[in-house]
């Protein structure tokens, strides 16, 4: 299955478009739950919570620090804010990715002769 130059493509276009379509369908399900839900669950709790746990464990078990309740509270707030920013960035990036793809697919459908 080589192209004109005798080079076999690394990824079959059919597999690539099928994978993209599955990702788009998955995103549509996530998108229906809303931006705030995504940011809170995937960003603040998911990424921010995981980072809080990893960084706190690192301080305790690797650096052998004793953490005060105040430092843990500040750390939790910082990672929650970072998770919010992460969730917002990922939401925006993914929206642009799939909104652009939808427009591109619509223009391809419109340009095809019937």
Question: Would you give an account of this structure?
Answer:
- Helices cover 81% and strands 0% of the residues.
- It has helices at residues 13-33, 35-62, 69-111.
- With 114 residues, it is mainly alpha-helical.
- The chain is built from three helices and no strands.
Oligomer: single chain
Q: Tell me the radius of gyration.
A: 22 Å
Shape: elongated
Helix content: over 70%
What class, by secondary structure content? Answer: mainly alpha
- Order of H and E elements: HHH
Low-confidence stretches: none
The tally of beta strands, per DSSP, is 0
Mean pLDDT level: 84
CA(first)-CA(last) distance = 29 Å
Number of helices: 3
Characterize the largest beta sheet: strand count, sense, and whether it forms a barrel. none
Task: Note the beta-strand portion.
Answer: under 5%
């Amino acid at each position: 299955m080589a192209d004109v130059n005798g080079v076999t493509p690394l990824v079959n276009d059919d597999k690539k478009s099928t994978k993209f379509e599955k990702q788009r369908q998955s995103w549509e399900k996530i998108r229906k739950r809303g931006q705030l839900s995504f940011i809170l669950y995937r960003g603040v709790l998911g990424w921010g919570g995981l980072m809080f746990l990893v960084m706190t464990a690192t301080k305790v078990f690797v650096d052998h620090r004793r953490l005060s309740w105040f430092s843990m509270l500040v750390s939790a707030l910082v990672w929650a804010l970072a998770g919010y920013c992460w969730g917002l960035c990922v939401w925006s990036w993914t929206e642009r990715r799939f909104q652009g793809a939808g427009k591109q697919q619509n223009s391809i459908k419109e340009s095809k002769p019937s």
